Amino acid sequence: MPKKQQETRLSAETRERLSRLRPGCVLLAREALKDPNFDATVVLICLYSSEEGAYGMVMNRPSHMPLSEVFDGFGGKTDIRKVHIGGPVSQDELQVIQVTDTPAEKAFQVCPRVYLGGDWEDLERLLESGGTSSYLFLGYSGWAPGQLEAEIIADAWDVYTVDVERFLAQPQERWGGDVEEIRRRLEQVQA
After folding, report:
1. How far is CA 186 from CA 6, 39, 42, 81, 163, in A?
2. CATH of the domain at 155
3. Averaged pLDDT for residues 119-127
4. Taking a C-beta distance cutoff of 8 angstroms, is the pair 115, 95 a contact?
5. Who has greater pLDDT, 9 or 69?
6. Which letter, b or e, does each residue of 155-191 get, where b requires 16 or more Cβ atoms within 10 Å of its Cβ?
7. pLDDT tens for residues 44-102?
C-alpha cells in the first residue's frame, strides 16, 4: 500500500503521535509492546530522522551495580552517579546526556541545553564536571528507518512532547513506577 494511502487510514490519534516524533520527545511503552526490554519504559529520543531511524535512552532502568563495579577506579565515588541501562544495544558502551550551556566537544544537541555524547578525555573529568547535570547510560535503544513509526502505528508507544530539561531535573525515582503513574508525570512536564 502506498505511504500516502496508508497515512489516510491511520487514526487521528496515531497521526498525532507520529507528528510528535523528533529529538527530545519521550516515548512511553504501551501494553501492546511485548518486548521485555521495554516493559513500562520511558525513552528519551536523542536523535531522530525518518531516513536514518531513531536513537534514544531508556530513562527508568537503573543499573543495580554501583559505579565502582561498572568502571574500575571509582571505589569511593559510587554515590556520585547512578548508571542506567540505556537500552539493549551495545550495553558495554557508555552514553552520556548533559544539561548544560557548555557541552562537551562533539556532543549532539538533543534540544536546548540537552546534549548527547561528546568527546570525553576520561570518565573522571566527566564526573567532576557534570555535577547533577550529567546522566550515564550503558547501551542505547535504536530503531532502523521506519521501525519506530511502525511500532507507533501498532500502538506500542505513546509519544510526548515534554520540557526535557524539566523532565531531567525531576528526581530520577520519578522516572519510574507503573504506566499510569508515569503517564501522569509526563503530562506534568509537557511542553
Report:
1. 29, 17, 9, 23, 9
2. 3.40.1740.10
3. 66
4. no
5. 9
6. ebbbbbbbebeebbeeeeeebbeebeebbebbeebee
7. 999 999 999 999 999 998 888 766 677 665 555 544 567 889 999 998 888 899 998 98
Distance (Å, rounded) from C-alpha 188 to C-alpha 191? 9
Given the C-alpha cell 521501525, which residue does it identify? Answer: 147
- Which residues lie below 8 Å from residue 7, measured CB to CB, with a gap of 6+? 15
Domain containing 68 equals 3-188
What is residue 11's three-state secondary structure? coil
Euclidean distance between CA atoms 136 and 85, whole angstroms: 9
**Alpha-carbon gap, residue 116 to 134, rounded angstroms:** 10
Asked if 108 and 24 touch (Cβ cutoff 8 Å), the reply is: no
DSSP helix/strand/coil, 155: coil
Q: How confident is the model at residue 1 (pLDDT cuts 50, 70, 90)?
A: very low
Q: How do strand 114-116 and strand 53-58 relate by DSSP bridges?
A: unpaired
Q: How confident is the model at residue 12 (pLDDT cuts 50, 70, 90)?
A: very high
Give me the number of domains the chain comprises.
1
Q: Closest by alpha carbon to 127, among 167, 173, 68? A: 68
In the numeric block, which cell numbers belong to residue 185? 508525570
DSSP 162: B
pTM for this model (two decimals)? 0.86
pLDDT for 107 beyond 80: yes
